Structure formats: C-alpha cells, structure tokens
C-alpha cells in the first residue's frame, strides 16, 4: 500500500467532485419524472448528496487538502446528465443512478479504511454512515428498475452485500489489523441540513 494519507486525499477529492455531479444530475432527474413519490424520493436523494459533499469538504479542509481541480468538469457533467434525464426516458436515468450508487458504497467503505490507516480514525464513522446512505440509494433505484417491463432482459449490476456488512466487514478488518477506531465527538457526522452550492 502507498501513503494512506495521499490515498485518502485522492478518494475524498474524487468523492467531493462526484457528489457535485450527482446532486446536479439528480436535480434534473427528479424534475423529469411525473410520479409524485418518485419526484419526492429523488429530490431527497439530491439533498443527501449535497450533504455528503459538505461532509467530505469538511474532511478535506481538516487535513488541509482543499479540492478545486475537478469542480468545473464535475459541474458540467452533472448539469449535462440532468438535462439528458428529460430526453432519455424513464428507465435509463434510473438504471444509471443505480449503477453509480453501487460504486459509491464501495468508495466510502474504502475511504473509511484509509482514514484509519492515515491517522484519521475520527472520519471513519461518518464515512461508513455515508456508505449506508448510498446503500439505501442503490436499493431504491434497483427497486424502481425492477418494476419496468424490460427488467427481466436487463443485465443488472451486481447487488451489494447486506447493509449490515458495511460496518461488520470494517470491524473485522480493523480487528485483524489490531486497530480500534473510536468515535470522536468532533467528527463530521451526517444529520445536519444540506447546504450545497447552487441551491
């Protein structure tokens, strides 16, 4: 393994810009659907992505590694995807969102492990919580795709392990490494109001 702090910084920077793109894409997505329940849930997911971005940005600030390089590109990608949702039909955005969220679960799980190894164990609980929220997002989009008449013909992305495995696998790895990350009262935690840019 290389330098854990460098690896943590890289994945947090990627997540920070990725959350910008995702939130903007979801803004276009919820505006494109007609069902009121779908609109409400996807809008909530947008809010949660903004909140994740705030939390990741706080972590980057605390380790002195602000992220700006990918911002313009991420914003452009997110807005473009949001616009495409209005012309791509119902299924494609739901399918694409589910695949994306499946990847995001793993990204935050990896970041939690890197945080401990980089000497930032106070970040781990927050990162694992974000992985759990992304798990919920993946399950929602999977459930919507499965309602479509073409679902039986689609090659669905691999399902994630049960939600409880996010923390259970983390604890097993930390125990095997002889580490016991403790929850810190000053760690950034999900639960406060989202306040992303462009809101």
Average pLDDT:
89
Note the run of SSEs as H and E: HHHHHH
How large is the share of residues in beta strands? Answer: under 5%
Total beta strand runs? 0
pLDDT < 50 runs, ≥5 residues: 184-188, 191-199
Helix content: 55-70%
Q: Tell me the structural class.
A: mainly alpha
Number of helices: 6
Shape: globular
Largest sheet: none
Describe it.
The protein is an all-alpha fold and 199 residues long. The protein has six helices and no strands. It has helices spanning 4-32, 36-62, 71-84, 91-117, 124-145, 165-176. Helix 1 (4-32) runs antiparallel to helix 4. The longest helix is centred in the first third of the chain and has 29 residues, at 4-32. The termini are far apart. The model is unreliable at 184-188 and 191-199 (pLDDT under 50).
């Amino acid at each position: 393994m290389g330098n854990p702090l460098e690896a943590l910084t890289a994945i947090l920077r990627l997540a920070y810009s990725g959350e910008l793109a995702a939130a903007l894409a979801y803004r276009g997505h919820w505006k494109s659907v007609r069902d009121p329940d779908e609109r409400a849930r996807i809008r909530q997911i947008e809010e949660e992505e903004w909140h994740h971005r705030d939390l990741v940005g706080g972590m980057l600030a605390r380790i002195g590694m602000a992220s700006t390089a990918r911002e313009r590109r991420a914003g452009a990608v997110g807005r473009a995807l949001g616009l495409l949702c209005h012309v791509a039909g119902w299924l494609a955005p739901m399918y694409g969102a589910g695949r994306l969220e499946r990847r995001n679960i793993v990204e935050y799980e990896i970041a939690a492990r890197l945080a401990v190894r980089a000497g930032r164990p106070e970040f781990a609980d927050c990162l694992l919580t974000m992985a759990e929220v992304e798990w919920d997002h993946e399950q929602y989009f999977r459930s919507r795709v499965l309602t479509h008449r073409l679902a039986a013909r689609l090659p669905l992305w691999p399902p994630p392990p049960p939600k409880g495995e996010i923390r259970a696998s983390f604890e097993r790895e930390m125990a095997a490494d002889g580490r016991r990350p403790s929850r810190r009262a000053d760690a950034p935690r999900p639960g406060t109001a989202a306040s992303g840019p462009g809101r």
